[in-house]
Write a structure and sequence with these properties.
By secondary structure, the chain is α/β, with parallel strands linked by helices. The chain contains 4 helices and 4 strands; from the N terminus they run E-H-E-H-E-E-H-H. It has a 4-stranded parallel beta sheet with strand order 2-1-3-4, with helices on one face. Helix 1 links the parallel strand 1 and strand 2. This is PTS sugar transporter subunit IIB. Keywords: Sugar transport, Transferase, Transport. It comes from Enterococcus hulanensis. InterPro entries: PTS_EIIB-like_sf (IPR036095), PTS_EIIB_2 (IPR013011), PTS_EIIB_2/3 (IPR003501).
Length: 92
């Protein structure tokens, strides 16, 4: 399987993206999905999105080029299983 590239974005690229990043990495390892996970600010996405396979964000963002998952569930715990499954489905 090719190594995937995932961008994890939040407003500042620090606090909430760190929480989401750690959880996404855990789930990728559990499901044997090789990936590079990179944190950034939402404002940086347009310059970083080329070559990425997925964007996971805690704020509003849309792309016509690659899938975007708005994953507030990683912060609230509500609906996290569904978001994890979406990530696995997209990357598998």
């Amino acid at each position: 399987m090719n190594k995937k590239h995932i961008l994890i974005a939040c407003g500042t690229g620090v606090a909430t993206s760190t929480v989401v990043c750690m959880r996404v990495k855990e789930e990728l390892e559990k499901n044997n999905i090789p990936a590079t996970v990179e944190q950034c600010k939402v404002a940086e996405l347009p310059s970083k999105i080329h070559g990425a396979d997925l964007v996971v964000t805690t704020t509003a963002y849309e792309s016509d080029d690659i899938p975007v998952i708005r994953a507030l569930s990683f912060l609230t715990g509500v609906g996290i299983e569904e978001d994890v499954q979406k990530i696995i489905d997209i990357l598998s």
